[in-house]
Amino acid sequence: MKHNIDLGEKELAAMKAIRNAIAHSGTAPSTRELMRALDYKSTYSVLLILENLIKAKYIQKIDGKIKFLKDLENESNHGRTISVPLIGIAPCGNPLLAEQNVEAMIPVSTKLAKPSSKYFLLRAIGDSMNLKGITNGDLVLVRQQNTAENGDIVVALIDDEATIKEFERKRDVVLLKPKSKNKNYKPIILTDDFLIQGKVVTTIGNFIDY
To answer: Rounded CA gap, 68 and 15, in Å?
Structure first.
């Protein structure tokens, strides 16, 4: 088992708190939020820990926001998990899996994410797939692939935006179908003007600390 020999217990606790906050809310905690999460009395202690994490190249700060460079490797379940990137919900001109879209690296059980494939996590927005158990704010585990079969739940990139829908091909037309109690959603009808980014493997639901 590989250990994080350059991190102390305080740094390890901070890493886990930051990672869990990003996965839960999509944003890293502020210094004061991290202070409360770690049960410290002053922000000075937190700033010292963040400085140590930056020096150890586990995190970096860009425009005041924390970004992960690598994840922890000494957790008790290491070896039974793989680190999966949690990406932003919109690529904003960049490829969906571009480095700048990665919010955190999240350990996921190898029972869900098979080491033979590549995966990413996406935070679902809205209720267009709630009949498939995907609700607003859920983390969705996606296996990277550029093909799909009828009935697959896929992540598709359309006009620079990612969407989660059920895939169906009819001759030369592709339907990306919502599966929702809200009947206002309609299928998206496409030809070749989209990209399949992956197939949804499972919904993790509201984030649970690993």
So the answer is: 9
Of the pLDDT bands very low, low, confident and very high (cuts 50, 70, 90), residue 99 is low
pTM: 0.67
* pLDDT tops 50 at residue 1: no
Evaluate whether 66 touches 59 at the Cβ level (below 8 Å): yes
134 and 200 fall within a common domain? yes
Contact 151, 166 (CB under 8 A): yes
Is 165 known to be catalytic?
yes
Q: Are residue 121 and residue 196 in the same domain, yes or no?
A: yes
How far apart are the C-alpha atoms of 159 and 127, rounded to whole Å? Answer: 20
Q: Are residues 46 and 122 in the same domain?
A: no
| Whether 57 and 130 share a structural domain | no
| The pLDDT of residue 74 | 46
> Catalytic pick from 16, 128, 177, 183?
128
The conformation of residue 150, written as its DSSP 8-state character, comes to T
Of these residues, 10, 118, 132, 165, which one is catalytic?
Answer: 165
